[in-house]
Amino acid sequence: MKKLKNILLISSTSLAIAMLPGQAASEAVTVTGNGNIQAGVNLDFRINIPSVLRFRVGSPGGTINEIIFDPPAATLGDPLNPVSATSGGDTGTPGDVSVQIISNAGVITITESNNSGGAGLANLVGNRIPYAEIGTISDNSDLSPPVLSNSGTNTSSPTINGSLTIENATWTYAYLNTAVYESGTYGTSARGGRVTYTASNP
Amino acid sequence: MNRHWLRVTAHTLLYIMLSAWCQQTVAIVFNIPDRTVPRLRLIVGSSGPRIDEVDFTVPLADLGNGNPITSTSSISFQMVIRARASSPLTGILSADSSTPLSNGSSTLPFGDISWTSRDGDIPGGTFDGTAYQVLVTYPSSVRVNDRLTFIYANTRILEAGTYTGRVVYTLAFP
After folding, report:
1. Is CATH 3.30.1050 the classification given to domain A53-200?
2. Could you say which of B41, B53, B56 has the minimum Cβ distance to residue A30?
């Protein structure tokens, strides 16, 4: 900051407006006058916000969570006794999976699919348990899961606010236990037990 | 009479005149006129009619994660605040950021934009989104040259698009 000398020369090659009193609007303004005078200048701002869709089910990174059910023999096939998971998930509670979706791209659809070829979870000898035996509930009605199915085409739509979808939820899986199946271990990623959720902006 | 003698004679006469004048008590007064009209000058960015633009591009990976985004270039601010020495005035630099940035359907408040100052003549701060935010005051007469670097806070997930907005800086004698 420099104190002006008594005699001040101002180079004014740019737009100079004298008003007495008054206001001028440009990007280089000189005003002179007694009383209230003001020089107004504009500055523009531009922010480029990219489109984004972030979707996570379970642990972050490349980890794929596995939910395991061990139906007890005493209630096997009793739909009044659905079975909670004995392990799996990422929240510390077996069967619970944290889910997050962040999008600024408009309406989002979540679609379920699986690697069973439309036949459900298989055991070592090829018996099947349909995906309809696995129920999913959410603690956030704004981020509901699609119902699992053998065909793998069910969808759900998170609540959208304007063009934004920003939701967190915990999805809890349960074995519905509506029928008695051949004994054995069904599913795993090797035998049709992997579900893939796909979030998309149609 | 050649030129040498002309020079000697002129010097002699000047000496005699100064000697005579110095022997008298004479007050010498220089009249420097007090500027009669106060003046303000404000230049933001490039001089001339072009309106400068501060640009931010948020990387996809950083969108809304709170990592601030700094504009690619700083903006020059030049001010002259001048008034009579006998009647000093206070110049006020203010900003009107009351109209938020918009992409046409969604808005972004100017409160998400702050700035730092190269020299501190205009203190660093954050827009408050009002029509009259006093940034700094200066006593007359003063000349200011500073540069501001703007920063987008990047704490929100916003609708995708290009948001534009305008801040009006005003330098005033109230």
Report:
1. no
2. B41
